Each structure stands twice: as structure tokens, then as C-alpha cells.
Amino acid sequence: MARYKRVLLKLSGESLMGQKQYGIDEARLAEYAAQIKEIHQMGVQVGIVIGGGNIFRGLSGSQKGFDRVKGDQMGMLATVINSLALSSALESVQVKTKVLTAIRMEPIGEFYTKWKAIEALENQEVAIFSAGTGNPFFTTDTGASLRGIEIEADIMLKGTRVDGIYTADPEKDPTATKFTEITYDEVFSRGLKVMDLTATAMCKENNLPILVFDMDTVGNLKKVIQGENIGTTVHN
Question: Would you identify the CATH topology of the domain 6-235?
């Protein structure tokens, strides 16, 4: 049985690199598509936001001389490339998708509105939201928060390389301990980098819980949907 009826799944662009140094690892893409198909077949309505860090990241580009606005626009286009790749991978395993873009770019994708998104979800299509919020200076985490709130998702599932939120970076600090759950206020007071501050504040204000889990371990997405106690839940 699925614990959630409608979810917003936030995926990292960097995770799509898999074993590669850049771009999209076809094996990782196929793994993601198979995991998403599993929960789709359980009747869960799935909206997805995917980052673009495997192709271009506006903030790091601006540190190397790119204009920040143009850099962020390049990052938005990177998310569109990833969204099309994920859409193609899902369609190849017989899962219908709809790519919606925050910037007009028909025929690549339809221009996003809340109503088109919800209609797609209710028609058993996986809705993939690309181009962030359509504005510079906002991350795809903020885009995911915004879309999750708009489509009235039960929860945001943030798929990462780590298995939850820790007191410190577990890759750098061997003494770091993991939270099974934590409040938004504690995330702020401890200065934990769950998402950027704008995204976290939006989720807090609109009472959208976040579940951070390891998406790169095959089968974890289904476990999360079934309510197994993996990852870390952030709530009010």
C-alpha cells in the first residue's frame, strides 16, 4: 500500500552522472526510470523536478566570469535537457509523461501551469517540471518547493547520495549522527544544509514535509512510498 497519494520527487542533476565525469549516465537514468515506474504502478501521482548540475550550474559559472543571470538561464536549460532524458527513459518503459517548462519553449515542452500539472497527474502521467522557477537567483530546490506546494503534494521526496540528514557532513566527519526526523526550526537553528534557505522556508510556511533519502540505492523509492523508516523527515 502507498503511504502517499501525490508526491513531488526532487532529483539531483549530479546523480544522473552516475559513473561518468559529466553529462548523463544511461544506466543511472534507466535505474531511476525503473524506480519511478514501480511507484507509478502503485497508483502514486508523481511530479518530478530534476537539477542541472551534471551539465551546468549557474552559481559556479558566475564565479568563473559568467554573468549570473545568463549563467542561471544556462542552468535552467540544463534542467530541460535532463527532463527530456528522464521523460524518454520513462516512456521507454511504458510510463506516460508530460514535460512542463517554466519558460515558453514549445514544442520541447508545454508551458507550466498548476492546472495542466494536476490534469496530467490525474491522467496517470508523470509530470516533469523543468527550467526551475523560470527566474534567475532561484535554485531547483526552490523550484521543487514551489511546484510541490502548487500541485498540493503530500510530501517532497528529496533523492540524494546520502541516506538522510546528519549533524554534520558524514563524508567529512565520521562522528556525524543521523536524524530520523527533525523540525524546520531545528534545521534553521543548526544551520543544516538540507536545501537552500528560500526552499526550506517555503516548505515550512506552507507545511510541506520533506523526506531526504538515498535515491541511488535501487528499491529505496518504493520503500519510502510504502512508509518504511528510511531517510530523514523534516516537518513543522
Answer: Carbamate kinase (3.40.1160)
Q: ω before 107 within 30° of 0 (cis)?
A: yes
Residue 136 has what pLDDT? 96
Mean pLDDT computed over every residue of the chain: 95
In this structure, what C-alpha cell is assigned to residue 66?
559568467
How high is the pLDDT of residue 1?
A: 87
Task: Give the Cβ contact number of residue 41 at 10 Å.
Answer: 11
Is 221 within 8 Å of 41 (Cβ atoms)? Answer: no
100 touches 117 (CB < 8 A): yes
Is the pLDDT at 225 greater than 80? The verdict is yes
Burial 177-201 (b: 16+ CB within 10 A, else e): eebeebebeebeeeebebbeeebbe
Task: Report residue 183: phi and psi, to 5°.
Answer: -90, 160
Task: For the chain, state the CA radius of gyration.
Answer: 17
Give the pLDDT of residue 58.
74
pLDDT in tens, 17-36: 999 999 999 999 999 999 99
Alpha-carbon distances, residue 23 vs 35, 56, 153 (angstroms): 20, 9, 29
